[in-house]
C-alpha cells in the first residue's frame, strides 16, 4: 500500500516552496512586536505554534537531532507555501466543509477494503503510520484545498505530441556497455596500517554515545480489543504533541519500560562491540535535547523511545576490529586511485586487462534497471552520459568502471504506456506554468517575516 503519510508531507513541497526564499529571503523583510506570529502572507498569519508543530514533524521525518539554519528555512518555506493556497482559496471563496472532507477521506484507496471505505482500515492506517485522526484530517484538508486551487489553473492542460515524444524517447532509452569492478586487494604492512590510524585517529573514535529508555508499544496490543489499543496509541501521540515528558507518559499510561545502554550511531558500545540494543541507535540519534521522546517503528513493532544522556568523544584503542576497517579503507582508496587514472588516461580496456578484471557486457533497459548493483544516483549518472564515455562509479565501497558503447530505443509495447507519457508530459508542463503562478502569488500576497520571532525560534529549537 502506498504510504499516505509520506504523501501528506510531500504534497506541501511544491515548486513554490523551492523559489520562495530565492525571491524574498529572510534577512530584512519584516520585524515587529507580534510575539506569536512568525510570518504573514497577505492577510494570512503563520503562528508560533504552527511553526513548532511543523519543525517537530520535520525533525522526526528526517531523523534530525540538530537542526541547521537551512532546515528552519525549509520549514518556514513549507508553511508559507501552505498559506499561499489557503489565502488564495479564501479569495476564491473555496470552503472545505466537514461533509466534503469526510467524502474526500472515504474516497481514498488507502482506507478501503474491497472498494469500500472501512473504518477499521482507517484506524489501522493511522496506527501503522504513527498518525492520529486530527493530524491526518488536518493534512488531507490542506491537500484537498490545494487540489481545488490548482485544478482552476491546470484543468484541461494537454501537452503537445513533441513533448510527449520527448518523454517517450527518454523513458524507452536503453544503454549498451561494458563494466568491471576494480579489485586490487593490495597487501599493506602493519607499519602502513598503524600510520594511517594515527593520521586519521579522529575517524576511528567511537564518537558521541547516547543512552535512553524504551517501551515496546506493540505489546500493548490485545487481540480481543484492537479499538482500545488504537485509542491508547493516539492518546500517547497527543501527549507527545503536548510536550509531555517520557516519565509523565509512562506513569499516565502505566507503561513498563527498559533501559538502552550507551551506544553510538553505529550501535557500538564504548569497547567497540556491537550492542545487543543496536537497533535503537537510529532512534536515539533522531532525538535531541529539545525533542527527547518520540514513537518509532521497527519490524512492524512500535516503540516509545526517550533520550536520557549524551556523551561525546569516546575513544577506542587500536585493535583487530579497527585494523580490519583500515585495511578495507586502504584498498578502497587504492581502487579509487586506479579508477581516477583510468578516467584520466581513457584506458578502460587496458586497466581491465592489467587487473585481470572480469569485463562484462551490460544492457540497461531503463534508468531503474540497476542490475541490483548500482544506486539511483549512479543510474542517473549513467543515463546522463554520452556514447564512448568512460565512467567511474562508486557504490557500496566498491569501484566500478563502465564504458558506454551505444544507445537504443526500446520497442516494448504496453497499452497503458502512451497514457503514461501523456500524463508525464502534462506534469512537466504544469511545473513550467507553476513559475507564473509563483509570480502571481508573490505579487498578490506579499510575504512579511517577523525576524525577531523567527530568530528566537531558530536559536531555541
Task: Explain what you see.
The protein has 461 residues and is α+β, with helices and mostly antiparallel strands. The chain folds into three domains: 4-157 and 424-460, Triger factor/SurA peptide-binding fold (Orthogonal Bundle); 173-188 and 321-409; 210-262 and 274-313. 48% of the residues lie in helices and 18% in strands. It is built from 17 helices and 13 strands. It has helices at residues 4-10, 15-23, 48-61, 69-92, 98-106, 119-128, 133-154, 161-171, 190-199, 226-241, 246-253, 281-284, 320-345, 348-354, 376-383, 417-444, 451-460, and strands at 37-41, 44-47, 112-113, 116-117, 173-181, 207-216, 258-263, 293-298, 301-314, 360-364, 390-395, 398-409, 447-449. The chain has a four-stranded antiparallel sheet with strand order 10-5-12-11. Strand 1 and strand 2 (44-47) form a beta hairpin. Helix 2 (15-23) packs parallel to helix 16 (417-444) and helix 6 packs across helix 10 (226-241). It is globular, with a radius of gyration of 27 Å. It starts with a helix and ends with a helix.
> Which overall shape is indicated by the principal axes computed on the Cα atoms?
globular
- The CATH class label of the largest domain is Mainly Alpha
CATH architecture of the largest domain: Orthogonal Bundle
Instruction: Kindly report the spatial arrangement of strands forming the biggest sheet.
Output: 10-5-12-11
Give the CATH H-level superfamily of the largest domain. Porin chaperone SurA, peptide-binding domain
Strand content: 15-25%
Tally of individual helices: 17
Tally of distinct domains: 3
- The CATH topology name of the largest domain reads Triger factor/SurA peptide-binding fold
Amino acid at each position: 500500500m502506498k504510504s499516505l503519510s509520506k504523501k501528506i508531507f510531500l504534497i506541501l513541497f511544491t515548486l513554490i516552496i523551492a523559489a520562495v526564499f530565492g525571491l524574498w529571503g529572510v534577512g530584512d523583510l519584516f520585524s515587529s512586536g507580534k510575539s506569536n506570529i512568525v510570518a504573514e502572507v497577505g492577510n494570512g498569519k503563520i503562528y508560533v505554534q504552527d511553526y513548532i508543530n511543523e519543525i517537530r514533524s520535520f525533525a522526526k521525518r528526517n531523523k534530525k537531532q540538530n537542526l541547521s539554519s537551512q532546515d528552519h528555512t525549509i520549514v518556514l518555506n513549507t508553511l508559507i507555501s501552505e498559506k499561499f493556497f489557503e489565502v488564495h482559496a479564501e479569495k476564491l471563496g473555496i470552503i472545505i466543509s466537514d461533509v466534503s472532507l469526510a467524502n474526500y477521506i472515504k474516497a481514498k484507496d488507502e482506507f478501503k477494503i474491497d472498494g469500500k471505505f472501512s473504518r477499521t482500515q482507517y484506524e489501522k492506517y493511522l496506527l501503522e503510520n504513527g498518525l492520529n485522526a486530527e493530524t491526518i484530517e488536518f493534512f488531507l484538508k490542506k491537500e484537498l484545498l490545494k487540489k481545488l486551487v490548482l485544478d482552476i489553473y491546470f484543468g484541461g492542460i494537454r501537452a503537445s505530441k513533441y513533448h510527449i515524444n520527448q518523454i517517450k524517447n527518454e523513458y524507452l532509452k536503453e544503454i549498451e556497455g561494458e563494466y568491471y569492478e576494480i579489485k586490487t586487494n593490495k597487501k599493506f604492512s602493519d607499519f602502513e596500517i598503524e600510520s594511517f590510524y594515527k593520521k586519521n585517529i579522529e575517524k576511528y573514535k567511537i564518537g558521541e554515545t547516547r543512552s535512553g529508555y524504551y517501551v515496546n508499544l506493540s505489546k500493548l496490543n490485545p487481540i480481543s480489543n484492537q479499538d482500545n489499543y488504537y485509542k491508547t496509541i493516539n492518546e500517547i501521540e497527543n501527549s507527545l504533541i503536548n510536550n509531555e515528558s517520557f516519565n509523565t507518559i509512562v506513569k499516565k499510561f502505566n507503561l513498563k519500560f527498559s533501559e538502552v545502554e550507551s551506544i553510538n550511531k553505529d550501535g557500538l558500545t564504548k569497547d567497540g562491540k556491537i550492542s545487543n540494543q543496536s537497533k535503537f541507535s537510529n532512534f536515539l540519534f533522531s532525538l535531541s535535547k529539545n525533542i527527547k521522546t518520540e514513537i518509532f517503528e521497527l519490524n512492524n513493532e512500535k516503540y516509545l523511545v526517550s533520550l536520557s544522556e549524551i556523551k561525546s568523544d569516546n575513544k577506542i584503542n587500536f585493535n583487530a576490529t579497527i585494523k580490519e576497517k583500515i585495511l578495507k579503507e586502504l584498498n578502497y582508496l587504492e581502487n579509487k586511485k586506479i579508477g581516477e587514472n583510468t578516467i584520466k588516461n581513457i584506458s578502460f580496456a587496458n586497466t581491465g586487462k592489467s587487473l585481470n578484471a572480469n569485463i562484462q557486457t551490460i544492457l540497461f533497459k531503463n534508468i531503474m534497471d540497476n542490475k541490483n548493483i548500482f544506486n539511483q544516483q549512479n543510474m542517473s549518472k549513467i543515463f546522463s552520459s554520452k556514447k564512448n564515455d568512460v565512467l567511474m562509479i562508486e557504490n557500496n565501497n566498491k569501484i566500478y568502471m563502465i564504458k558506454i558503447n551505444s544507445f537504443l530505443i526500446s520497442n516494448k509495447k504496453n497499452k497503458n504506456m502512451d497514457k503514461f507519457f501523456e500524463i508525464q508530459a502534462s506534469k512537466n508542463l504544469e511545473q513550467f506554468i507553476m513559475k507564473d503562478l509563483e509570480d502571481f502569488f508573490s505579487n498578490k500576497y506579499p510575504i512579511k517575516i517577523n525576524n525577531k520571532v523567527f530568530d528566537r525560534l531558530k536559536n531555541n529549537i
